[in-house]
Amino acid sequence: MRLSRQSALVLRVAVGFGLAFIYIPLGVLAIYAFNASNILEWPPPGLTLDWFPKALEDESARQAFTTSLKVAAAATAIALLLGTLASLAVARHRFFGRETISFLVILPIALPGIVTGVALNNTFTQVLGIDLSLFTVIVAHATFCIVVVYNNVVARLRRVSASFEEASADLGADPWQTFRFVTLPNMRSALGAGALLAFALSFDEIIVTIFTLGAGEETLPYWIFTNLFRPRQLPIVNAVAVIVVLLSIIPVYFAHRLTREEGGATGGRGGRGREVEAEATAVP
Amino acid sequence: MTTETVVERRSAGRKLAGLFHGRRRLQAGTLLAGPLAWLVVVYLGSLVVLLVSAFWSVDPLSGELVQGFTFENFELLWQESVYGDVIGRTVLVAAAVTVTDALLAFPIAFYMAKIASRRGKALLVVAILLPLWSSYLVKVLSWRTMLSNGGVINWALEPLGLEGPGYGLTAVWLVMSYLWLPYMILPIYAGLERIPDSLLSASEDLGGRPLTTFRRVILPLSFPAVVAGSIFTFSLTLGDYITPRLVSNDQFIGNVIFNNISTNLPLASALAMVPIVVMIGYLLVARKLGAFEHV
């Protein structure tokens, strides 16, 4: 799209302002991770690298990190399975109540975390009599992660014609073969994008986690939560946070590669051709 | 031997395939069984339990749960003005955060989708995704220190003779707008990407000035995506109780639920019905507006 010089300038200023808003707090956080003093005053009296080795050696932080990886991986696996099944049903079949499925899938993420947390906590402890544990956290996380897989895959399936699958069946493939060799390759990158988003949602979740976590277990956000108010631990928390941001470059890189394959931020809305087109009409 | 097993397995697969062949209902039912069982039993079931327990009460003397049926929790919410204030405050901040994020997100999403070069677009997508991966709590903590008396904000404003907002309602609004901004940018960006550039060129060719094109083509087509983003910003604000605790002394719905959960579960459940009802209404409207395709 062509813009007048004036509106292009206004737009650039707005974008710059937005990016500054996003990155200044992260920058401040990063600086505090090098703060030589325990007290969070500004500007910091001096800088040090001491907190990083301490954060890496902190046994409880390391354990919490591993726990978070486990929970996120398990929740993502469940979400992938259930989300894919639901999206195949909705995109490839007609049945009574089909419209309700998308509502049902979206509900756990659209209702505030505290509602989901209280409701599941109530059911686990009062109705089912299950002790809270990592298992209950995984169940809770998987519940609100289904939607991101579902949405990515359903959007993809709507774009890929069902006639490929029909052709495969006509040529004698059984349903599994059709899924394995036709449907799955078509939705692979949508699955990848959905999985990454689900993993991210679970990895950083705190509110539902507080209500469903067993005694003695700690995910990384929970570890941060408990150490936030301990002045002696605060610099280590800051260092851990910076390390997590740095590590998150890995999944963001993969997410980016997936979307580059497809075009679009959340797993393939819009195509590669459009990107090129956008480039051709960009303001010089 | 090996060929035999392959043939056998194949025939078993064939049998199974034959069972499903042409039976579309059976196919759909098999696909849906797992997800439906999970969402209906685990999730809706829990919500129903929550609804039921909102009609229970707590014995004032023993403090024990009475599993009877009473409206007293809802009556209390209705009569005590404190709860009305809390609900009003929460909904107001949620609306303010949603509007703020929509205003901040749109130019960024628009620039990403329609103006930036391919490289610039790639960089911006990463720049928006990255904060989504950094810990929510740590971001709130960062704001807490920035807003504190000796924090960056006061330090930066002091030479201008100004003072930051400190802790309070403004701080909650600011921090929540910050936290949920990426959740607004991404759906709008995806929605704008879906608008073919040829539509914009057509509007231009027909004599539409950029502002007209924006108002009459871009805005109506991307509005469902904005609504999709607003589901997140609104709902996340509605239920958050950690941010208000860290940057204000104000009570939000989440705080009151959290504070009552161990002492008065029925009251907490009744209060939890408020965001549920608000969000279900919000979702029904959002679906009408076509937002679900953009989430």
Quick gist of this model?
The complex is a heterodimer of chains A (284) and B (295). With 284 residues, chain A is mainly alpha-helical.
Count of discrete alpha- or pi-helical segments spanning 4 or more residues of chain A = 13
Low-pLDDT residue spans of chain A: 263-284
**Broad CATH class of chain A:** Mainly Alpha
What's the order of the H and E elements of chain B? HHEEHHHHHHHHHHH
Q: What is the tally of beta strands of chain B?
A: 2
Helix content of chain A: over 70%
Series of secondary-structure elements of chain A, N-terminal to C-terminal: HHHHHHHHHHHHH
Terminal CA distance of chain B: 52 Å
CATH level-two architecture of the largest domain in chain B: Orthogonal Bundle
Strand content of chain B: under 5%
What does this structure look like?
The complex is a heterodimer of chains A (284) and B (295). Chain A has 284 residues and is an all-alpha fold. Chain A is built from 13 helices and no strands. Chain B is mainly alpha-helical and 295 residues long. In chain B, strands 1-2 form a two-stranded antiparallel ribbon. In chain B, a hairpin with a 6-residue loop joins β1 and β2. The longest helix of chain B has 35 residues. The radius of gyration of chain B is 26 Å and the shape is flat. The termini of chain B are far apart. The mean pLDDT of chain B is 88. Chains A and B meet through α1, α3, α4, α5 and α6 of A and α1, α2, α4, α5 and α6 of B.
